[in-house]
Every structure is written in structure tokens, then in C-alpha cells.
Specification:
This protein is an alpha/beta fold and 342 residues long. The protein has 10 helices and 17 strands. It has 2 domains: 173 residues, P-loop containing nucleotide triphosphate hydrolases (Rossmann fold); 86 residues, Alpha-Beta Plaits (2-Layer Sandwich). It binds zinc ion (2 copies).
């Protein structure tokens, strides 16, 4: 039997409105109600989020301390084994019982990790079948999980958002819920809005009823994605890119200097800037050295410098060719048409 598919976005829930949370701190009541109704009709619900592990970070309730990976200068997230894990280098640490800074006993977990969502769904619907599929499964295990999902007649599947993109949903599917698309929404990169648009629009365009829970329902890009308004997003983005002298109107080269010592990485990129200045070439865009994001990865400090140009003339400038050649000696990465400026 083929179910009736609803070809429209259904509901956007404002996660900053505390009054819509009753039975759960992370899943709002309208979503819980909708899931209950769907389960009563013996159908299947997919609930996805884009955060790995249990939560995005561990925060001291008193002083706000967040443990970070010393090698990468990034917050640890809490993985599915309850360990703190670096999202970049994978280094793990045991969460301490008390805050290492102020010795406070109470800590809170921020963000909805997929494993936390799985426990929450089992708690909210103890009598229902709740399946789980993360991203780190080996292909054989994954196949087994997918087969289990396809055979599910009634129940809940907790998955990563990437699964939404590729999934074959089983024929009993009635609802997709996307919780917390907010991660990476405000990354200060030139294409972060476009990427966020794609992430949400890919879910929205699936042929099912959709519910989205976000802290930023009024954010322009979320609104456009929800309406599947690609033309408007494209128009807005192109205007910003044109004004910002960015691709596709300009070509970019990102130089990244790395070193175990912060001052050395900085000095390398500063020297490169001086060399570029000596070319007497007017780059329409020249972003002066700035720390990469994250600033440190695997004990290496990283600094960027970006130049933009309209035509390819600069590439034939003999001294520019020398500069590029010299970069490999200095171990400076040269990224032509970079996908990220961070
Ligand atoms: Zn503390
Ligand atoms: Zn790390």
C-alpha cells in the first residue's frame, strides 16, 4: 500500500520558546504529539539531527568553563561512550566529576547529539520500537541497520541528517523531523549560508510531512530553505558575493601558514604579505592575515591570507609565480578557488 505523501513543508517550531517544551527539554510538545498520532496510525517517523555523540559540549553551570582539546583549540563534544572527544583530531578525555576550574559539581550538556536524541526517544516512547543509525557504522553493520529500518512497520528511527539525504525510507514513513539545524549556521564563511540552505532544503524537498525545530525560525536562510525558494537565496547570495568581491565574480587564492609556534606561523604569513606587496599589483581583494578556524589543529597554529583577482593576469606575473613556488618551500598551503575561507 502506498501512503498519501504530503508535498509541502509542514511546521517550523521555535526552540527558543520554552513554553513549547513540557515532557522533554530537547523535543518540543507539538513534535511529540505529532509522533504519537503517527505511531497510533502504525506508521514510521524519522527524527534527525546533525550533531554527533550525546551533546555538542560540556559546560560548567557556575563558571561557564568548557573543556577543549589542547591540540586543536576546539571544544570537546560528548561522544556516545560518554567520553569527551575532539571533533578534529579525535583525541578523547574522561569528563571530570567536578569543574576543573572552579570545582563546581554541576555541569550541563549543551546541544542535541544523536545519541542523546536516541535515549530521549526511548524515554518518551518506552513501548515503541526505536531504531538508531549514526554515521560511523561500518558498511556491513550499516547494511544490517538499513535493512532493519526498511522492515520497520511502526516506530521511530533516530538518524543523522546525512541519512535523510540518501535514505530509502520505508513505505510506512509518514513524518521527518529535523531537530536543531542551527549548528554551523553562523560560521563566518562566505558560503556558510548557501551550505545551510542546501542542508535544510534537501530535507524539505523529500516527499513527506516535515517538522523543523530551530532556535532561529526568523533567520533569513532558514525561512528561504523552508520555502524551498532557491531563486531568492541565489539572488541574495550573488549580490553579497558581488559586493564582497567573492566567487563566482572573483577568483580567490587562500594561503595558509602552519607552525607549532604561533609567532612563527604568523611571521611566515606576514612575510608572504610583504612579498605580495612588492609585486605592485593591485589585488581587488586582499584579506590581511587572520587566524584560521580553528586556529590550532593537531598542535599546529594556522594563519590565512586571501587574495582575490578578476582575471588570470596575475598568474602570469613572473614574480607571482616565484612567490607561489616559494610557498611550498616555506610549507605554506596554496589553495586556489578554496571552498572555505576559514
Ligand atoms: Zn566551573
Ligand atoms: Zn584535537
Amino acid at each position: 500500500m502506498t501512503k498519501q505523501k504530503i508535498q509541502k513543508f509542514d511546521e517550523i517550531l521555535d526552540a527558543s520558546n520554552k513554553s513549547i517544551f513540557h515532557s522533554s527539554r530537547i523535543v518540543s510538545e507539538p513534535i511529540i504529539d505529532e509522533i504519537s498520532q503517527i505511531l497510533n496510525k502504525a506508521e514510521v517517523v524519522f527524527v534527525g539531527t546533525n550533531q554527533k555523540g550525546i551533546s555538542s559540549c560540556w559546560v560548567c553551570n557556575k563558571c561557564g568553563f568548557i573543556p577543549r582539546c589542547q591540540r586543536c583549540d576546539r571544544n570537546y563534544y560528548l561522544n556516545d561512550h560518554g567520553k569527551l572527544k575532539c571533533p578534529i583530531c579525535g583525541q578523547t578525555a574522561k569528563p571530570e566529576d567536578n569543574c576543573p576550574k572552579c570545582k563546581n559539581k554541576i555541569v550541563k550538556y549543551v546541544g542535541i547529539g544523536i545519541n542523546r536524541l536516541f535515549s530521549e526517544m526511548k524515554k518518551l516512547f518506552p513501548k515503541e520500537e526505536v531504531l538508531f543509525i549514526g554515521e560511523e557504522k561500518k558498511s556491513e553493520t550499516r547494511k544490517k541497520y538499513v535493512n532493519g529500518i526498511l522492515a520497520l512497520k511502526r516506530g521511530i528511527v533516530v538518524c543523522s541528517i546525512n541519512f535523510f539525504k540518501t535514505a530509502k525510507f520505508n513505505e510506512n514513513t509518514a513524518l521527518l523531523v529535523f531537530l536543531n539545524p542551527d549548528k554551523t549556521l553562523f560560521l563566518p564563511d562566505f558560503n556558510s549560508y548557501e551550505l545551510k540552505y542546501q542542508e535544510i532544503a534537501e530535507v524539505i524537498s523529500r516527499d513527506y510531512k516535515i517538522m523543523l525545530q530551530t532556535k532561529y525560525p526568523d533567520n533569513e536562510i532558514i525561512k528561504l530553505a523552508v520555502k524551498n525558494n532557491y531563486q531568492k537565496m541565489k539572488k541574495n547570495e550573488l549580490k553579497l558575493r558581488k559586493d564582497g568581491l567573492l566567487p563566482p565574480f572573483y577568483h580567490l587564492i587562500k594561503f595558509m601558514a602552519k607552525d607549532k609556534e604561533e609567532t612563527k606561523a604568523q611571521a611566515k604569513i606576514q612575510k608572504l604579505l610583504n612579498n605580495l606587496a612588492e609585486l605592485n599589483f593591485e589585488f581587488p581583494l586582499l584579506l590581511e592575515p587572520y587566524p584560521a578556524y580553528p586556529e590550532k589543529i593537531r598542535d599546529q597554529y594556522r594563519f590565512n591570507l586571501v587574495v582575490g583577482f578578476k582575471d588570470q593576469k596575475i598568474k602570469n606575473h613572473p614574480h607571482f609565480v616565484d612567490i607561489i613556488r616559494n610557498c611550498s618551500l616555506e610549507k605554506i598551503n596554496v589553495d586556489v578557488d578554496p571552498v572555505s575561507l576559514l
